[in-house]
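User: Please predict the structure of the protein below. I'd like the answer in structure-token form so I can feed it into my own downstream comparison script.

Assistant: Understood. Taking the following sequence of 188 residues as input:
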Amino acid sequence: LLDEPLSNLDAKLRVAMRIEIKRIQQQLGITTVFVTHDQEECFSISDKVAIMNNGVIEQYDSPETIYRLPRTKFVAEFIGFENFFSVEKMEAGHYRTQTNQIVTNPEPNVTTTVATIRPEDIEIVSEAATNTVAGTVAVRTFLGKSYQYEVETALGTLLVNGTSEQLYETNETIHLAFPAEKLVILEK
């Protein structure tokens, strides 16, 4: 049992120790329970991940599955999803927001729920089209290799990562597209 063993290390040493722990674990062939609140640490070391909420396992699966398809809002928030909005099921594969219809691969069979999408998966497009929503840039943040925008939309405030090639100004109207394969419909 390893209970947050890397929490007091600097960033570079943490990465080196993650690799070393995984190497030792594989070399010895032992099962290890690694407790952490750091999702990068969790995903890089684990073969299976259990996300717990108040002592109850919300989701137990491979790191890849949890990263791509969280089942609940709690799990999605825990692993870094930041954009959430209500959707209502219309028919198989079709969910409607208050502003448009979004087509997706519906994992859960629910009527009214929440959809989520990562900031890096929302596309900034030149004009309104199917599965887009207009919004106004409220805040622009420089992240080094890219920019992140806080965009006020009819769906609520959404975080969107944009490239450094195209710069959008505060108060500028932009259009956001939600690729169906990147949109996750949550169970609850």
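That's the full token string. Residues 4 and 37 are 8 Å apart (CA to CA).
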